[in-house]
Amino acid sequence: MAPSDKKDGAEKYAHMSLDELQKECRERDIEFQENTGKDGLIALLLKDDNKGPDWAEVFADLLCHTSLSYEGTLRRTIPQIEAIRSRLGKNISLKIGMPGLFGGALEKPIQENDGKPPKLSEFMAFASAFDVIK
Amino acid sequence: MAKKEAVKPVDLPVMVGIGDDFKAKGKSYEVKPLLLAHIPLFMKDNISLDVQIFNMTNEKAKKTVDKWLGEVTTEVEGKKITAHYCLDENGEPMSLDKAMADGWDLADLRNFFKKLCDMSG
After folding, report:
1. What does the alpha-carbon distance between residue B19 and residue B33 come to, in Å, rounded to a whole number?
2. Nearest chain A residue to B115, by CA
3. pLDDT band per the 50, 70, 90 thresholds, residue A107
4. H helices within chain A, ranges in order?
């Protein structure tokens, strides 16, 4: 079974042996050469982790097992769809579609001046000063 | 009979589609999760989620930010699907002008987009 934590990097597979990695690849129907090393298998698993969900399957589940219409489904949010599908016993992790979104990058503080970031109005005034250079 | 796998309880506001609080410059705003219909549009708009300067340097980018703070509409099979993802304390949709009037800085704008993405899945 794949590790269920939300680590994005290779570290979540680092503790697995070569046999375990091969078993995981087989369970997920990932093709690999028998002589592929640990790093190669981890790369394949990470690629598989980042592939998007099968939205046709998601829509089919909702259309067939609930009274939601196609349009009604479009008006739902991902957390709502995940909640409904988990009650149907379906557990594909749905994502907005941006792998590594805010993957730590947002933890960096914005460059500040005098202890405060510039106001939007201040920044726009600054940016508009360059409008004449065209 | 097979044992049913435990599922995590989901709060009612999530199922109803009520948003979450977002604070900026002492004021409280409501941010709502993206509707499925609007996710492709959000991706297409290519908003810079980390460095907000890129969202403010030209008119097209500013209009995009204004749209996501205010009203977003898309048409699917001839039907318009509209949503407001950022509401002020009176429940009115925000706009870039309103955000500037409320004294938002680039960090507030980034926090808004972060919240929007975090709660959207």
Report:
1. 7
2. A102
3. very low
4. 11-14, 18-27, 38-49, 55-65, 70-74, 78-87, 120-128
The pLDDT of residue A132: 57
Number of domains in chain B: 1
Gap between the Cα atoms of B97 and A5, Å rounded: 41
Over residues B57-109, the pLDDT tens digits come to 788 888 999 999 999 999 988 889 999 999 999 999 999 999 999 999 988 99
Report yes or no on B96 lying in a domain.
Answer: yes
Residue A104 carries which DSSP code?
S
**Which tens digit of pLDDT belongs to each residue from B42-71?**
998 888 887 777 777 788 888 999 999 999
Q: What is the ipTM of this complex?
A: 0.85
Given CB atoms, is A74 within the 8 Å cutoff of chain B? Answer: yes
Query: If we measure between CA atoms, which residue out of A51, A65, A91, A59 comes closest to residue B76?
Result: A59
B108 is a domain residue: yes
DSSP code of A44? H
Q: Residue A114: CB partners within 8 Å, gap ≥ 6?
A: none
Nearest to B103 among A77, A87, A119 (CB): A119
**B119 Cα distance to chain centroid:** 9
Q: What is the pTM assigned to this prediction?
A: 0.71
In a 3-state reduction of DSSP, which class is residue B86?
strand
B15 part of a folded domain: no
Task: Decide if B16 is inside a domain.
Answer: no
Domain with B72 in it? 22-120
Could A124 and B15 be called an inter-chain contact, meaning their C-beta atoms sit closer than 8 Å?
A: no
* Kind of pairing between the strands at B27-31 and B86-87: antiparallel
Chain B nearest CA to A128, separation (Å): 8
